[in-house]
Specification:
Helix content is about 30%, strand content about 20%. The chain has about 450 residues and is of the alpha/beta class. Among the domains are: about 115-285, Rossmann fold, CATH 3.40.50.11540; about 370-460, no CATH class. α4 packs across α7 (about 275-285). It binds iron/sulfur cluster (2 copies). The site of one iron/sulfur cluster (SF4) has 16 residues, from α10, α12 and α13. One iron/sulfur cluster binds near residues 371, 373 and 421.
């Protein structure tokens, strides 16, 4: 197997217990039952939300576009099931908590694709522009959690050169195993997807980065790469957040760039395993992104598993598949490090970015204490920040001070909170400060706009 010498890594980070993944790692991917009712949110990507283009009582077909991208950094949304639009109403977003316009579809009897979809293409005959268009048409977004529109990542701006594509197979978030299972079960399609990305970007060199706790996946990927000299497998140290773009690029290529910059600055584009498969489905088969693999796991789940799940599936129906233990008391969308705790199972449904549903038991609230300056968080921060100072400034709502300590460079990975001796909710304080700052800025912009409008009105009289 190529590239299995010294394990590559980065500075900082943490080592969560390895057995957390064992709950679901040996569970083969199975299809979850189709939801009777799908709740399709119109904000499923970073950037502008999409705009509904269907109305109540419209009949829709699986894969039909039902909401349109409203800007360049936005993505189309498609019907995950065939059926009828029951209503367009507001539901809480599982990540932001914001009330979000949601298209509710009552499933009908058939599960046929809308016309023109699910047809094979001749990849060799496609131009880079054709590939970008197919990805855009399919509404593909980053499925590692960030949900950044993928067609944008495939469109480097003029003046920026990409020479390396990295396939992110690290899946460093504890408990989650959806990418791992796909590497074992859909290996050929993943490498075909990687070659589609390379063709689109005109890039000759690619790497697949996989953590050393997934050696069976390394073997399978390596056997499919074969003797292709342009794709190299890199086995990485098992460390969180090995799959974050900055850390992965540093580990694989040695290149560094600022936390506020994009991987493009290092000449790299990174896609994770699920996204690469969604690209493959979009380009090879003209299948929009209407489903993905979701790991349902945690010590509060009776039978953890990895399920192909339609977007908009209510969480109750996924949990009825796995069963939950009586004393389960915490539900998280995503993994324990970067996932978002949900207030209730009622009203929560999957979105494109949902790679995991984690159910915990015995989750307790705890008392946090004053910082004792032990420095553990500074050692753990993979971005070289001082989380201790950041938490103190954020707690005091001293945003100016927090900004001087590079608040905006924090990627909210949670390493600092994980190691904190005083159990300080550092990442929570940071997130709240960023949220408050965002609101402050929006208010200032609105004030400024109102002033300008008033000035123009006076001038025009
Ligand atoms: S959450 Fe932010 S401050 Fe804390 S370790 Fe991660 S990047 Fe550093
Ligand atoms: S780990 Fe906690 S107690 Fe230690 S320096 Fe950081 S914030 Fe302070």
């Amino acid at each position: 197997m190529a590239g299995t010498g010294r394990l590559k890594s980065f500075s900082g980070g943490i080592h969560p217990p390895s057995d957390w993944k064992s709950l679901a790692k040996d569970k083969e991917i199975t299809q979850a039952p189709l939801p009777e009712t799908a709740y399709v949110l119109t904000a499923q990507n970073i950037g502008a939300p999409s705009k509904p283009i269907v109305a109540k009582r419209d009949k829709v077909q699986k894969g039909q576009r039902i909401a349109e991208a409203s800007a360049f950094i936005s993505a189309h949304v498609h019907a995950p099931v065939s059926g009828e639009v029951k209503e367009i109403t507001f539901r809480p977003h599982p990540v932001t908590g914001a009330r979000t316009p949601t298209i509710t579809i009552k499933r009908g009897d058939d599960d046929e694709w809308a016309p023109g979809l699910n047809e094979p293409t001749d990849i060799d005959a496609l131009s880079p522009e054709d590939i970008r268009n197919l990805v855009k048409e399919a509404g593909v977004v980053g499925l590692g959690g960030a949900a950044f529109p993928t067609h944008v990542k495939l469109s480097p701006p003029p003046g920026k050169t990409v020479d390396t594509v990295i396939l992110n197979g690290a899946e460093c978030e504890p408990y989650l195993t959806c990418d791992y299972r796909q590497m074992l079960e859909r290996t050929q399609e993943i490498i075909d997807g990687l070659r589609i990305i390379m063709k689109c970007l005109g890039v000759k060199d690619a790497y697949v980065g996989i953590e050393a706790n997934k050696m069976d996946a390394c073997e399978k990927i390596s056997s499919v790469i074969g003797d292709d000299p342009n794709i190299k497998l890199e086995v990485l140290e098992v460390k969180y957040p090995q799959g974050a773009e900055h850390q992965l690029i540093k580990a694989v290529t040695g290149r560094e760039f600022k936390p506020t910059q994009l991987p493009l600055e290092a000449g790299c584009v990174v896609h994770n395993i699920s996204t690469t498969l969604a690209i493959y489905e979009a380009v090879k088969w003209k299948r929009p992104l209407i489903q993905r693999v979701v790991t349902v796991t945690g010590d509060g789940v009776e039978n953890p598993g990895n399920f192909v799940t339609r977007v908009g599936t209510p969480i109750e129906s996924l949990l009825s598949l796995t069963g939950i233990k009586e004393d389960a008391n915490k539900l998280i969308f995503g993994g324990p490090m970067m996932g978002i705790a949900q207030q209730s199972v009622i009203g929560a449904n999957t979105v494109k970015g949902t790679g995991g549903v984690l159910v915990m038991r015995g989750a307790e609230t705890w008392e946090s204490h004053a910082c004792i300056r032990c420095g553990k968080c500074v050692e753990a921060c993979p971005y070289g920040l001082n989380p201790s100072y950041l938490s103190i400034f954020c707690e005091a709502e001293n945003f100016q001070g927090a900004m001087e300590y590079n608040l905006m460079e924090c990627k909210e990975c949670g390493c600092c909170t994980y190691v904190c001796t005083s159990k300080r909710p550092i990442v929570h304080l940071i997130k709240m400060a960023k949220f408050d700052l965002g609101r402050q800025r929006a208010r200032e912009q609105a004030k400024q706009k109102a002033k300008e409008t008033a000035k123009q009105t006076v001038a025009s009289k």
